[in-house]
């Protein structure tokens, strides 16, 4: 292509080809900035030839300046952001930081000292040879030279000028610096604030030291006998680092500069070759070398420093480094650099041009995020899926024509990946052999010298007609990801195997994140976590930019990591790619779309014959220009010498141009109505004449004549006439073809299932291997957030009945139940190997001290002086009942009589409240009268004496039948006697007003129970809505004012969910901490029972009584009365927290803000593997409930609610492997929670993701199965149940329709007191006033 010349602002520019509009705009901005001496930020999409444009524009302007007035380059800086369109950020941000950073080792100092000694020795030798020019004293001093003290005593004028004046002080400073470095107290990877001047160098003395180093370098470089260590390199390094510390631009305070730095100290082993011949240096005989890192984390500092340098130096830096270092605008430091200057981003004129041209190029481009196909969260996890990933690569290799790029996050991961399947190379059906039968594999070499021959071999294989192209395995941020051109057939697809996160524990990465989080930079900058994530996505954009290099290019971009599926991740990609993104849940659909994509694009753009190509470095791909080359060396590629040659089927193609209905590829494997001719010789090629001759013999005369006419019309360009001439297919032929196709498909499917290799688990998926949990905890920030909303249609009525009937048939168990479980993601653990052992009950330490009496001494004063906040409404609390009983204004008998009446009244309304389903007035009044008598005598049994309480139906309560929410007496209740918590409440004098309603057997969180004995419990705030479950009746009784305390149980949020949606307080204690005697055994390993109360104090009083004589020893409640949260560390996982309705999120964020205002420290945390934990919890609780109810399902099948039967059907479909895997996941979840609680004291989430769901009319009689609503209600509950940690829920607001919203606090095992203290402070702040429910009763006021 011939070069062209054109004029921009009176500057004559030479360009290798006619520039595209975006390239012209880019050069126009460069020249404009240079002419005006202004700073600028320029950006352009990847592949638009930025480097070429930049160099051509600058050189043209330079020649114009020299020609006109022999001038030099001005002081304006042009900062080129080598990033995709839409992101004014850097790719080489660390270039700026490294320009003002350094690493100094004690070995470097020792070499410098040795250099100075060497120069002194040279001078001494010169003087010995010329004794006449030196005095005896001077010669004696030189001959006895031991160190700087002897040199300082020299008196000769010659020595003062050449030695003392130039070198002696330098050596003293170097020795002091070495001593200072060795004396720093060392801890592994320690970090300190920088203190310039500690080693004798200050702002006043450093210029002289620099002059001395410069003279030493001059003498060393002129020494003909110098060695590698005596070439001046070490002194030059010392000179450069001193300039970094002190040589900043004018107007920049040294103290301000040091705030942009961190000092890092580490120790490295000294190799045997590092020998220092200095007697004085401490580093001469060290086995360990200290490395002092002085790292700058403000790119703007380097920019401001370079802007103040001279024009000639600026010109050299500009051309030598392609216009200098690249600025990171994400930190906002560039904005401060360019104050008062021109900020040219070209985002207007240039972006519109570039984006339009690139969008037209990518009309057919396809992006995919194949979830699970090639997932990589860290180097360990990638290996767990290597076999499945290679099968994905094999499938891609079959589909993608010509060149295919596969990018890995790191070299180690790529080589580990290759080693994992390389052992199968010699197998007859090995993965490597199968991949290379389609595309030879090339690996990116680590050495730059090996890259050029590797690329040559890659291009040759693409041009080789024996292969379907070639595959290049490269590394993000490597040599291939930036600078190499894979345009056209050299790169038709790029596969990103995972997010290339930088090593989180790398000191520079860690310090950079801390620097950004510390607020020592501008307020508009990113946080450390945002910066860390941004680096990974920038590396992805770099790798993606290797293909689709010009407007006639096309290709597929395949992002094989589940984390790319989120909207936030896709927004990190280039602007011109986002509209084409598509997420795939199934690999088969991706294969179909990918095949169709290449067919349609090849038909649109044509099929070109690949030719060998030399590798091209740099940009300029839009015009095919190159800007550099690579050196030659031995090729580095995967050894395939043992693989057999590829055999291709010989197919004689029709020489006609195909119609738009299908595509004829270069080497077709499938064709429509093609004639295949078997050749006798493998190397024979068939011509059109042979093909036509075969047709003439195979067809009738009439048919062949019609074919000949159609062919002639087609050649003349009359396609429609050619089609019309051909006879239309007969109906019988079409039916026969369709029948034949169906038979072939069925036979193929049957053969696949009969002949496929068996797997031990009997499934169709490959088993994934989970990385050890310690690996996950080393870098939890990279964990993907995979929790999703379950999508299902609410099932009710007759259709629901039919579905249940079908689910319990053999066909339903084989087809329907697995489909439903797969839709809910419950099969996630079915094909996962977990290396940890199982945990059934978390082994956590228990508090040893008995604080029972001390806690009651705390509770009694709080009852007497309960903080009363001005509210429009407040529920009666235990303190209100105690004050009424003490004053005599009301007795326990009065309260009991009113409670009996209100229960009858509430169950007689339309619709009935159904909070209490069993209540015996005689029993209630007898208990109340006994309590009244004790109060008259002044001898109440406890703080709960005479206080009404309700007990959930999941407990045995005399004299009521133990139904467990069912319409019959279940078999699992046989032999269960009243005891445990129920007995403790009665012994404390509490008046049990009845048995509270519940979701049947606790199998759901809606509170739906349509059987004749129970009916749905209604939400007092709106009777048209559910009350949550399964402790629905307990929450309804407290919210409606029938009692201040109720007992509930919690296996999957059954206390906290109804408390949250009914606007009361609910506490789930640590699992197995309370006496569970008398409770129905439904959830052995995930269940707990605890109180629901009208206030936090009520729950504390109830917990104090329930914990007596149990395995639980309640820790001290000493701080319960505090209204501040000073010192409390609150953890929030914001992705998890915000996965809820907007009104819920807003109210709960207000609660977090209130805690912060009360003195708490809010920290962002990450909770990995939430989806795996959710699935493991479901498997555990459903299996345990299914086992407990096995006999009842057999005997009372038609009496059980439909929703319960659906859950039990799912539980009976599970396997022992899944249950054990679930318990192994519990081991991981417990370790994850322990790791989090090392940083925080409390984890805060919403109580539920949605407010109380509405009760639809069809659900009243037959019930409802609504997996979507159930999943949202349980979203924040399962973690506490599965790991056993306690959780507290309290109300913090209401929706616009008046439904309550709750927030949840979770704490360490057996630290319920921390949750109660935080809840008390939040509740007593008065920031969240209560609203009176639509159904409300007051037992302390006479009717």
Shape: globular
Report strand %: 5-15%
Strand order of the largest sheet: 18-20-19-23-25-24-29-30-28-26-27
Please count the helical segments. Answer: 49
Counting helices, strands and paired strands, the structural category is: alpha/beta
Work out the radius of gyration: 39 Å
Distance between the termini: 99 Å
Describe the sheet with the most strands.
Answer: 11 strands, mixed
Instruction: Provide mean pLDDT, rounded.
Output: 74
Roughly how much helix do the residues carry, as a percent range? 40-55%
Spans where pLDDT lies below 50 across 5 or more residues? 70-92, 139-168, 309-387, 423-428, 612-686
Q: Could you give the count of β-strands?
A: 30
What does this entry show, briefly?
With 1343 residues, the chain is α/β, with parallel strands linked by helices.
Summary keywords:
42% helix; alpha/beta; seven-stranded parallel sheet; 1343 residues
Structure overview:
- The protein is α/β, with parallel strands linked by helices and 1343 residues long.
- The protein has an eleven-stranded mixed sheet with strand order 18-20-19-23-25-24-29-30-28-26-27, with helices on both faces. Strands 11-12-10-13-14-9-15 form a seven-stranded parallel sheet, sandwiched between helices.
- Helix 3 (93-99) crosses helix 11 (299-307).
- Residues 70-92, 139-168, 309-387, 423-428 and 612-686 have low confidence and may be disordered.
